[in-house]
Structures are given as structure tokens and as C-alpha cells.
Amino acid sequence: MSSVAWSLEEFDVLRSFKLRMPKLDSDGNSSPFDARIAISESQGANNVNVEELHADVRERIRETIELVRDGKRRSQILLISGAPGAGKTHTLNHFRSPDLQAELGHVFIGGSNHWRIDEFSAQLLDWVIQGLTNPSPTQDHLLLERIRTIGFRAIEHLLMDPLAWRSRLRRPAWLTRKLGWIGRRLRWFRIPSRDALARQVEKRDPRVFRRFDEIEFGNYVCDRFLAEPSNPVHRYVLQVLLCYLFPDPHDRGLHVRERVLHWFRGRGDNGYFARRLGVNELADQAYKQADAVRLLAHLFSATVSSKLTTEKHPCEPRVLLLTFDQVEGRNELFSRPEEWLDFFAHLSELYNTLPNIVVLFTMTIALRDSLHAKMERQFRDRIVMDSRMVLRLPSERELQTLYRHRLEAWMLGDDELAGRYRALANPLLPFQQDEFRSLVNNRTVRDVLEDLDRAFRKRLREEVIAGARYDYLFIRNELLADCDRETEWDYTSETLDTLGELLENIGEMLCEPYGIRIKDRQRTKINNVPVMSLLFEKKAGSLSVMINLARVGRTYNEPCQQLIQNCLYDKVKDRNLLFIVRPEKMNWSPPPAYSSQCQSYQATAAHELILRTVRELAGRSESYAADPELQNEFVATLSDEIRKTYVAALFQFAKERLDLRDERAI
Amino acid sequence: MPVETTEGAAEPRSLDQLIRAAMTAESRPITFAQLKSNLKQIGVPTTGKKKVTDETIHSSLAELVSSAAVFEHPGKKYSVTPPPPPPPPLTEQILATFGSEEKKSVASIKLGLPTTAKPADFNKALKHLVEVGQLFAHGRGKAQVYARFAEPVPAWHEVGPNAKTFATLVKNARALVERGVVEAAQLLALLRANLAPTVVETGSASTSRVTDSEAKVKPPVSPTNLRGELREAYEYLCRFEEFRDRLVEIRRLYFEMTKRQPGLSVADFHRELEAMSNEWLIELHQINEVQLAQDRHLAIERNDRLYYYIRWK
Fold first, then answer.
1. What is the mean pLDDT of residues A361-383?
2. What is d(CA A341, CA B233) in angstroms, rounded to the nearest whole number?
3. Are the C-beta atoms of residues A143 and A264 closer than 8 Å to each other?
4. Which of A123, A158, A532, B312 has an alpha carbon within 20 to 30 A of A477's alpha carbon?
5. What is the pLDDT of residues A77-136, one digit of tens each?
6. Is A465 left (phi over 0), alpha (psi -120 to 50) or beta?
């Protein structure tokens, strides 16, 4: 029975919680606290973002991003450290949110840690491209938008000069040239007027780019917008990017956008860009990749953004938030200390040449302590490592919020239940305030979630009744974890104990369908084999049979001989019987003289799981006794389940032997 | 000494009475031979056919001793007066010479003794007293004195008492480094490891290697005092560059605490930290890389986790 006096509303919500827990697609129960390790790449329903957790650290990161974005501070390095499970990745994931990225003006960049130091440039370029082309390269994305803005702004600049724009227009097609003045008169081939172009630009119509020559226009953009216009790598990279604006009518296979991405990843393009740009160059060397990253970051800098901004079309700068998360279970990014130095040198170069980079590390305290000196030496005044950046343990209030958020996320899709839960006075259901406080007890988020998970499951399992059949399935799912953890041999090693407890509680109820009863029950060991001697009879004072139930292990030939010798030899044949069980099948036949007295059966882990579940359920028989309907369901459930186990075969064996004895007596 | 005869007495007396009479005449304890001689003088036949045998005298004497009518004295002598009480043991005599706040040299202790003692016995008694913690040696060599209280442990900032030893240590260390036998960093690490307060584990509880005497002398630390000291030690450590983010290693805090509370055991220290953590006063943080943990026994191990850092809320 419940140790807590629930109100009707509370009990109703708890019952709904219990009904919600079993998974439909597998044998297991889901709980609001299942996901306890924040996954870098995921923003799943269970990775609930609780903004109150480590709010000061989030605020510090936000401030830094804003300062760098507005050009008030140059690129910065941030280092979050904390104990395992304190919420480092959780805090980091907060900045993945697309809405927050748009609000703060940063681009979240980061990914796997499985790369070597010599792969850093390529890896970083991949991440930057991935970050800038979110959500998908084939949809509108940040990079495309920025290239278009550059293109439109370049045309606006061109149109300011009455002559310059004409020289960048696309050459007339061969047919127009053939047709001479007639061709030039035709509307289709007519050269657009300056006003027409200005109108298209005003409307931000991307079709305006078709009017311009790709190479000429590209050169103009490079000269105007590049910080280092003479850098050939930068020029080539920008030319490649400008291909976004000039769709290729003859393109086959991958779309031009994807081709651009693959070019950045150093993949061969079968001369595609050579055909379009007149020269082929691959981003296959580290310095080219680093240059490409620099160029991409530069395009989003405050300098370029200010050049692109117009009154009507503002262009906000963006900060590249490079994140390096120390992955759970892995000590460090690099194994050798000198690799760390190389890595820091790479980062140093990046933030020294670019104004809009914020590097965010998460590290455990020990790793941070070991790298502390190196980082300070390398980054000097650019690194932020104050006491705020060490994650604190959450307060009780924060944990209560986390609890509510977890439950809300878990109930997602069931508004009716969520509404009933919100209406309760105690949002910590099924716990009381004091109980919750002692349960969470000043520890890391992960540890707290682990204990909450355990306590939540236990409370619902033991104190909430949802019907015998349902409770049976619930308990079975909970016990299944133990079954999966152990081998079949270990799991079934104490099956006689389980059966003993079961018979103690509900022995009569189980025997009733077979018309027999257990008169006496004893436990012994014969040659280290556990044996339970059960004395069956039909009614008090009638003829009885003694069945010795034995559970043998891997070696069974000799123990079986011993069992026969001890239990059957020189004893009344009709009365003394042997029932041997084992998790696996036995290739054994008893001696002919005893064949009618012996029977063997397979007692698998599945049988044991049923017995254990029934045992636990039987311990709560009083809860079902109050309501006849519940009681009937309870009895039916137990009988049905027991029928699936070796216990049913045992009772059947006893019944047959008792019948036989009665017949012979007559 | 001649004994007065009692010839012509009306009633014959028993042997017990005669023995007592023979002894009463003597002012000092007498031997069995003297007793026999005195008995002879008062008419007890000791020769001839009716003589009283030695066995008879012995048995009577034993009865008299058991009934406390006659007392046995050292040297197999007997008297009707009880023997004087034995002098107190030497250890007690030595202790009696000390006042509660007094310090004495060996010579002055000997002078204060009521009886003279053999040097070997005296040294043995003094050693025993020091071993059981009833006396404490102060100082060394010729300047060594003894007292009933322990020598006070110097405060962590006092260098005076061990200045000479420290100077020698520095000199030797410098010589080793200059010769290139060992690097300075290595040597420092070794010294740190060897000079740090060593802790001996006893089962689940651990105690620091502080002599019993010191432990006895220090008054018990109340929880409030201990918390106050913990806070002070923590704040002191936070001034160091390595702890500027206010996350302090528990082992370092313990070392700092032992300077302030030399008798503080690891178990008490841990208990206090756990209690404060349960009251949400401090945060205990785990270390992920347990292989890097130093002095692991000083950290708190609970539920497969190693709590290695502390932070005040």
C-alpha cells in the first residue's frame, strides 16, 4: 500500500504516468529521466534545455558573443570546466538553437573530436561549411544569403558608375550576334537598361545576376570586398562561391551548390570549375583550407557587413562560435602535449587574423588544470577563465525546474495529462518537497537525474496500482534489465528460492486449478544440487506424493545419479518422484527402473523472469483484494503467467501421479 | 639479648603464646634461629626426648602469621609488629617531583627523589613514563628536560625551532642540484612527498601521524571551530593562482588544515565536509581522470565516484 496519502487528482496523474511508461515498440519502460548524458549533435525531446541551469555561464558566453559581434572586443577564447555530469555539453547545446543563433548573431560550429592535429584545417573547414549551410545546402542558408547580399551590393556599386556596369554584362549570345541589329532590337536579347537592373536589385531578385558575366562580375567582387584582393586563394574561393549566383544551365548530376561544398572538401570536380572559371585549383592543402576558413569568416565580419548594409537592406555581422567539447568517456582531444601546443597555435593564428571568432572549450577540471599554463601562455589576455566559468552544482530550485521541464517534455503530445499535471499543487509528484530535497542532495545534474530516475520508477512500481495485468507488464519491464545483465545460468541459479517465496505467498491459489495442495515443503542440498521436496495431496488425509524438485547446473549426469540414489532408491515407487530443471536442454535419460519416476524440464531465464515478476506482484495482493474486479484480474493474471513456466508442468506431474495412486488404491 | 624467665608460673602456656613471648622481648624482627634460642631461654625444650621440633615451631609460626599475630618481615625475619609499608615505586616517586607546569632536567629529578635509586632503575622508570605518555621530553641532547605536558607544536609559519635543520636541508639540496644528481623540480616533488603530513589508514577511518601526546594535548575541536578553520584555510588557498577560480583540491585543504589543527584526522575532516555538503554549504566536485588524482586517500570516495575538489557556495 502507498506510504503517502495521495489526493484523488494526484493518484489519477500518477496512474496516467504509470500507464505512459511502457514502451510500445520494445520491452522496457521509459521514464522522464532516461536521457542523462547530453549528446552533442542532438536536440532531442529528452535533452531538455533548462535555461535556469548555469544561467551565469550562459550569460557570460552571450555577453562575449555580443561584444565580439559588435566589434567592441576582438576574438575571444572561453573555457567552461566542470565535473563530469555538471552540464558542460548541456550548456554548449544551448547555443546550437537556430533561434538563439539568429538572435545573438553567431554561427555554431563544432562536431566530432575524432581527428588528428594534421587534419585540423580540413576538419575546421568542414565544420564551418556545415555551420554556414544549415539546415541543408539545397535550401536557403546563411552562406547563400551572404553571397547574394554581396552580389546585390556589388551590382548597386556597379550601377553607380554610368559606364562600369556595361563592361560587366554578359556578352550577347551567338544568335544575337548573327542577327546583328535585328537581334539587338528583339526584346528577349535586348541589353537591360540601368534602371531595370536597379529595380531588380531593389527587389532582391536573384535573376538579375543572369545579366552579368560570371568572370567579370567575380573579379569586380573580389577587388571590392576582399581584405586581401591579391591573395589568389581568396580570389579563387570567392569565385567558386559566386557560382551560387550563376546557376549552370548545362549542370548535370549534383546541383551547383553541392559542387561548391564538395570543392571545399577537397574533392575532385572533374574539371567542372575549370570549365566555368577557366582555371582549376583544389583546396587540397592545409594552407588553402586555412585561407578558405579565413575568407568565410571574413565575409561575416563587421567590416564586410558594414559595407553590405544599406538603409533598406541591413546586413548583420556574424560571429563564428567554434566549439570543442571534451567528449564523454574520452580523456582529451590529443594524446601528446605537443599536439595541444600545435592546436593552440592554429587557433591563435585564426583569432589573431580574424576579429569575429569566439572559441569555446569544455573541459573537465583535471584537463583544464593540466592545460591551464599552456593556454594562458598562448592566448594571454584573450582567454576568459574566471570562477564563473567553472560550473557550479545546481541549486534545489534549479533542480525543481529541471524536474518540471523533464516531466513536461516527457508528456509532450498528451496535452490532457500535461494540463492535469500543471493543475496540481505539488509539481514534484510523486515526491514531496522534503523527500525531493533529500533525494537530489547537492550533486551534479547527471547524478541527480540518475537517482530521480530510480526513485520515480520505484515509486510508481510499488505504490501506484493500475490493474494487475498492467502492473505485471510494468514490473516485468523493470526486471528485464536485470535479466539482460546476467547470464541465463546466473539468473536462474536461485530459481528454487524464487519458487519457495512464491509458494509461501500464493501457493494455494496456484495449486487450486489442478485440484491439489501442498502439504509440506522442505529445502535440502544433495551433492551441492539445490532440492526442494514438495509433498502434494488432493485433500487433507488423502494419498500423497513427494516430488523432489532439483535444479542442476552445467554438469548434470553425475548429479542426476546422486539425486536418484538419494531421492528414489529404496523408497516407495509410486510416492517418491524426481523433477529436474535446468536452463538448457538435458541429453539425459533416467535408468529404466526409474524412468516413470523422473521428469526433466527446461527452466529458462524467461521462466525465472515470470516467476520473479509474479512474486513481486503477489507481494501486493492486498492492494487488489479491496475490489473484486481487480482481484479477479489479479488471480487470472498470475494463473496465466504461471502456466507459461515449468511450475505448471510440475503441478501437472503431481496431479497425474496422485491420480495414478488413487487408481491403484482402488 | 637475655630473656626474662617465667619459671614457677602457675599454668603451662601454649607454644603460640611462648613464641609471641619470645618475640615481644625483641624490639627488632628476629630470625628463626634467634627465635629458637629465645624459646630455649624461656624453657622450651629444644633438645632431648621431649624437645619441640623445628617443624612444630614452623607450623605454629605459620599459623600466627596467617592470623596476623606475628608478621613476617623481609629477610625471613619475624616480629609481633607489622613491617613498615614499602616505599612507592620509582615511577611514582619521579612523577611526584613534577608540578603541572614544571620542566626538570634528569639531575634535578634525581635530587627531588625521596630515596636514592640505581641509575639503571631510574633510567628504566623514566623511559617507561615517556613511553606511556605520562612524561614528555622537551628539547634534545644536553638541553633535554622533562615535563608532564607535551612540547607545543610550532605553528606553520614559525621557522625558528627548525631553522638549523632547514638550513642544512637547503644546503644539501642545493649541493645535489648543483652536482646535477637530480633536477630541482624532481627534488622538490620528492621533498614534498616525504615531508607532507603522512596519513596512516586504519580501516575505514584514517588518522594523521601525530603522536598520541600531541593528540591528547590538543583540545577537541568543536564542529563550529572546525568549520571556521575550514573556511579560513579555504579562503587562504583561494589566494593562490592555481585556485583562483575557487575550486580547491580537497587534499590541499587537508594539508592546510593539518597546519592549523595538527590532530585533525582524515575521517573527521571528511565527515565535516560531507555534513557541510548535505547542508548545501559547500560543493564537492568529482574528478573524471581518477588516474591523475594525487593522495587519493584524502579525497572522498562515494558511490564509485571520487570527490576531489571543494568549492564554497
1. 80
2. 35
3. no
4. A532
5. 888 988 888 888 888 888 988 899 999 999 999 877 777 888 888 888 889 988 998 888
6. beta
Sort A97 into a burial class: Cβ within 10 Å, 0-12 / 13-18 / 19+: middle
**Residue A559 neighbours by CB distance under 10 Å:** 17
Contact B217, B280 (CB under 8 A): no
β-strand partners of A534: A521, A547
State the amino acid at position A583 in one-letter form.
P
Q: How far apart are CA A660 and CA A544, in angstroms?
A: 11
User: Quick check: helix, strand or coil at residue A331?
Assistant: coil
Would you say the C-alpha torsion A125, A128, A131, A137 has a positive or negative sign? negative
Out of A185-199, A506-520, B8-22, the most confident range is: A506-520
Helix H or strand E encompassing A484: helix A468-485
Are the C-beta atoms of residues B99 and B108 closer than 8 Å to each other? no
Q: Are residues B89 and B98 in contact, defined by beta-carbon separation less than 8 angstroms?
A: no
pLDDT in tens, B181-227: 778 877 887 887 777 654 444 333 333 444 444 444 445 555 558 88
Q: Count the alpha carbons within 13 Å of B79 in the hemisphere toward its beta carbon.
A: 13
Chain B residues touching A365 at Cβ < 8 A: 247, 285, 287-288, 308-309
- pLDDT tens-digit readout, B84-105: 777 778 888 888 888 777 888 8
Nearest to B286 among A83, A367, A389 (CB): A83
B36: CB partners within 8 A, 6+ apart? B46, B54, B57
Per the DSSP assignment, residues forming a β-bridge with B113 are none
Q: What does the mean pLDDT of chain A come to?
A: 85
Please enumerate in sequence order all residues whose Cβ is within 8 A of that of B23, keeping only pairs 6 or more positions apart, or say none: B30, B35, B38, B70, B78, B79, B80
CA nearest neighbour of A237 among A292, A276, A162: A292
Chain B closest CA to A408's CA: distance in Å? Answer: 27
Q: How far is CA B220 from CA A580, B139, B215, B216, B235, in A?
A: 65, 26, 9, 9, 23
Structure-block grid coordinates of residue B70: 606475628
Write down the pTM of the prediction: 0.65
Give dist(CA A203, CA A646) in Å, integer.
80
**Residue A307 near residue A153, CB atoms below 8 Å:** yes
Cα A68 from Cα A75, distance rounded (Å): 6
Report CB contact under 8 Å: A366, B288.
yes
The cell numbers describing A180, all together, are 546583328
More confident residue, A270 or B82: B82
Residue A392 to residue B311, Cβ atoms within 8 A = yes
What is the spatial distance between Cα A280 and Cα A270, in angstroms, rounded to a whole number? Answer: 10
Residue A481 confidence (pLDDT): 82
By residue count, chain B amounts to 313
Interface test with B, best of A372, A376, A443 (most B CBs within 10 A): A443
- Contact residues on chain A for B286, CB-CB shorter than 8 A: 83-85, 444
Which residues are within 8 A (CB) of B140 and not within 5 positions of it... i.e. 6 or more apart? Answer: none
A319: left (phi over 0), alpha (psi -120 to 50) or beta: beta
Dist CA A20 CA A456 (whole Å):
13
Mean pLDDT is lowest, of A648-662, B26-40, B138-152, B204-218, for: B204-218
What is the DSSP code (8-state) at residue A395? P
Asked if residue A524 lies in contact with residue A496, where contact means CB atoms within 8 angstroms, the answer is no
- Which chain B residues are Cβ-neighbours of A436 within 8 angstroms? none
How far apart CA B292 and CA B286 sit, in angstroms, is 12
Q: What is the DSSP letter of A180?
A: T
